[in-house]
Amino acid sequence: MEQDKNVTEIAEPKSIPQTEETSAENPKGILYETSLKQAEKNAKKEKRKGVMQFIKYALCAASAGIIQIVLFSILQAVIPSNGKTIHFIVEDMDLVTFIATTVALCASILWNFTFNRKFTFKDAGNVPKAMILAFLFYVPFYPFQTWYVHTIKSLLVEAIGTDGAGIIAEGTVMIINFALEFMWQKFVVFRKPKDKKENKTEENENSGKTENADNTNNVENSENTSN
After folding, report:
1. Count H helices, E strands: the chain?
2. Distance CA 74, CA 142 (A)
3. Beta-bridge partner residues of 194
4. Distance from chain centroid for Cα 73
5. pLDDT tens sequence across 54-101
6. Kindly report the CA angle at 207 between 201 and 212, in degrees rounded to 5?
7. How far apart are CA 101 and CA 4, in angstroms?
8. Could you report the per-residue pLDDT of 3-38, keeping only the tens digit for each?
């Protein structure tokens, strides 16, 4: 009997007490998983924010284009033509057309800047500085636009006619303008200062750490309750 008892004791595995290192693994694993989920959530949030920002900018740009066309048409009809012309970049333009184009462009820039600052990029920084930067974009682009449209029309007019060449020239320069101005406003005019970005990142990290700590405490409390 004693021999059978010894055999039974040897066959039964001894329970190993849980050490502090083993017990600490669960909270670490939970912290890691929670941090990973929080990082994924932040990435998705930033992606959605970027998409919505682009959509808002497109709507503001479209409304600014409508303002420019309407104001240009009104000025063309109101200002009497005197037959004078002005040589601008590569072509001779009617003086009234040049004035109407310039005034309508400035109005559309102001409209676009105001609504993008308020709704798209939600910037409350130095408004005069941002406005100067917004207008500064068109200092090189306005002459480039005039040269580009004139050049494309000249190259395509014989192949597809005046109307077709004009549509392609105006359409492509609008696409170029849209893309370049979006990047200019996002990364130059309404660029967030580095210290603000760092503070926002620190706030997100601190909130993530707080959430992780709360989750860990909840897990420990539930384990203690079950025990």
Report:
1. 6, 2
2. 21
3. none
4. 33
5. 999 999 999 999 999 999 999 999 998 888 899 888 888 899 999 999
6. 125
7. 106
8. 454 444 444 455 545 444 444 445 556 777 777 777
Listed in sequence order, the residues at least 6 apart from 138 whose beta carbon sits closer than 8 Å to its beta carbon are 105, 109
Closest CA to 113 of 183, 64, 62, 46: 64
Q: Which amino acid is at 213?
A: A
- Three-state DSSP at 86 gives strand
In 1-134, the DSSP E strands lie at 85-88, 91-94
What distances in angstroms separate CA 62 from CA 53, 66, 73, 121, 186, one per listed residue?
14, 6, 17, 16, 17
Question: Where in 17-142 does DSSP place strands (E)?
Answer: 85-88, 91-94
Looking up tokens 């037959």 gives 83
